[in-house]
Structures are given as C-alpha cells and as structure tokens.
Amino acid sequence: MKKIFFAILVFSLFPIFAELHPARRYVEVGNLLNVTASENVMPLNEIFKKKLVLDLKKIYSEMSGDGASMGLSVNEEVYIDCSFKTFGIGLHASTSLDMNMNISKDLFKVVENVAPGKVYNAEANLWAESFAVFSVPVKFAVDKWRVKITPSYFIPVFYFPSTTVSGYAVNGVDGSVTVSAVAPFEFYTVSEFKGLIKDGDFSTDFVKNLDSGTLSNSMLSSGGIDLNAAVEYPLFETFDVGGYLSLPILPGRMKHKVSAMATLSVHTDSLMQTIIDGNSPSTTAEFSDAKYSSANYSVNRPFRIGAECAWRPLGRWLALRGLLGLGLRNPFGKDVTIKSLYPEYRLAADVSALGMFGLSFSTEYRNKIFAHGVGVMLNFRAVEFDVFAAVCSSSFIQSFKGEGASAGVGVKFGW
Q1: Is residue 372 within 8 Å of 399, Cβ to Cβ?
Q2: How far apart are CA 47 and CA 14, in angstroms?
Q3: 301, burial (CB in 10 Å: exposed 0-12, middle 13-18, buried 19+)
Q4: With a threshold of 0.70, does the pTM exceed it?
Q5: 275 CB-near residues (< 8 Å, 6+ apart)
Q6: Residue 73 phi/psi, 5° resolution?
C-alpha cells in the first residue's frame, strides 16, 4: 500500500508536458454556461432585503468618480475536442450577450445640495451586443513550441452602438425631485423582425412572426470572420509562458437599423420621505417614432492581445497562473473611441488532487468588470462537473462588497 501511495505521489509531482491549459481527455464533449450581473451602487445583500432602504447620500459619497455602472453578461458554449500529444482539433459553437450602462456622478449631486431650482446636468453611456460564433480550434506542436489557431465565423445578432445620452436632475421648490432625459437612439439587428415596431412604438408581436428560414438566411449572410492565435513555450520544466492575439479579418454586416426617440422621467414629491419610507419614485419611460430602415453597419468582435504564464511548483498538485492583456471593443467600427480600449488581467491558483478533485481561486478584470471567485472541479474521467461563483463590480473597491455576482457551470464527457 505504501509503495502504491508513493508511486501516485511521484506521478502527481512529475511535471506535466509543457502546456498552459492541458487537455484532460483525448475526446471531450462539453457544455459551459456563465452569467454575470454587476453594479457599483450598493451590495446585493442590501438590494434583496425585505424592505429596500436607499441611503442616497452614502451611495453618493462612496461612489467612484466614474459614476454608477451596471452590466450584464451571459455566455454559453457547446463543443467537441479531440486532443493528442502533438495535435488537436475541435468544433465549438457559442452565444454571448453583453450590455453595460454608466451614469455620470453629476446626476447624484441632487442629494448633496437641495437648493430649490438647482439643475444638475449629467450623461449616461450605454452599449450592448450579442453574437453567435462557430469556431474550429487547431493545435499542433513544433519542437517545444505549442501553437493554437482558431478561425471563427461570427454572426452579430444584435448591436447597440456606444451611445451617450444627456439628461438633468432638478430640485423643486416644494421638495420634489425630477430626473429627465430625452434622446434619439438606434440599434442594429441581424434581420427585420416583423412586428417589433407597431404604430411607432415597440411590440412583442415579432415573437409569433418569427420565420426560421428567413432568420437563418439573414444570419448566414451577415457573418464575419476573425482569427485567434496563441503560442506557448516551456521556459523551464515547471514554468510555461505564452501569448495570444484575437484579430478581426472580415466584419459582420448588419443590414437592418431600428431608430426611435426615448423619453425617461423619474419624479418623487419628497426625496427625503421616499428615502425614509423606502418607496419607489414615479417612473415613466416612453418610446416614439420607432421605425426600421436598411443599413450596412460593420461590427467586429473585440480585438485582444496579451500574455499569460503558468508555474507548477508542485507538478499536477498546484498551478499558479497569470494573464495580462488589452482589449478593444468593435475595432474599426464607427462607434470606437478611446473608451473602447480596456485592460484585462487574471491571477489564479488551481489546486488539484490526482486530477479528480480541484479548487481554483482567482481575481480578474475582464470586460471592465472586477471579479473574485472560487471554482470546484469533480472529475470522474468519463464525466466532469465544474462550478464557479464570484463577487464582482465595475469598481475594484466595491467588488469586495458583493455588489454583483457571477456564476458558471460546466459539464464535460469523454475519455
């Protein structure tokens, strides 16, 4: 028994063949799902209390200079991979939805100064995008170098360009507060959804009018191409380094545009009484002059470039990982600005017991969201279950307070 245990221990400490993310199976079929919701206004445990209490002055004082930010991200992927010692190939299909809204801090000055008639001008920026992606990753080895090339065909299903909306907040002489914004906006769709617009307003009738044939033809004719390349090299037996590059090749084309006028009004007769009672202010949101028109709008998935490493001081038992890079949303697009550029990083520690049970701890900044999480892996060779949870926020300080959450689950089969 001691000899068997010693043999297992030696095998576990022996370095893995140099690879940043080694495959666990020769053939693997998987399904991965991740959902992230973030904001930087108040902790989730405060939001989900039986009686919500908004301490606006506290919120304003703790808010970063960037203002209030809210984001949502949903990603799902199904795939099949075949991996051998020096060669691998796969087929992946995924869908994604990402959206973000940021409101400048100036709007919240209304709680700092209650001078009657005082007007506070503010801005809000919002964007959203959704893609369907089909990719074929190919891996091969050249001496000690490992290379992975992934051509992808992506379909921009929905795209809301980065848009800035101006508004204002005003204190009334009677103690009331009114927040108003009126702005034109436009977004793009992969197909003309008949019934989405009715009498100049938006309607849900398009759901029953969906035609799978028309939608499929529109999607296939609107796709774009990009290429992801990654290379890695073992500097030492236990230390691997690598770099990655995601490069747009051919943009997706969105041929249908929706334009409309949006009006938002929020009013409360007494700001302080609303705070004390925990009541919701009166809110009105209206859309008018909505219409469809033809378009030829170019959309790309983000450009990314960066480097990563993995150090395994205890062989298969422990992997310490790091990643540092840059991203650019919709490169070469009409709405690209300096704000479209963002850094990204990830630090992680993966602990594994004989490849059957694993724990991962990570802190990262991706898609302008800070996240700190823990994951659990159960691997029974033929089947594997992965679960991940994190707290997150667009603010680094607030991310530790649980003002957002991320959760992921994965199921993998193979041998």
Answers
A1: yes
A2: 49
A3: buried
A4: yes
A5: 53, 54, 55, 56
A6: -140, 130
Select from 212, 146, 186 the least CA-distant residue to 287: 186
The CA-based diameter of the chain, rounded to the nearest angstrom, is: 85
- Count of CB atoms within 10 A of residue 414's CB? 19
Residues 85-97 pLDDT 10s? 889 999 999 999 9
Neighbours of 215 (CB within 10 A): 15
Which of 317, 201, 312 minimizes the C-alpha distance to 263? 201
What's the token pair of residue 194?
């008949």
Q: Does the pLDDT at position 14 exceed 60?
A: no
Contact indicator for 408, 33 with CB cutoff of 8 Å: yes
CA distances to 65, 214, 370 from 403, rounded to whole Å, are: 17, 41, 11
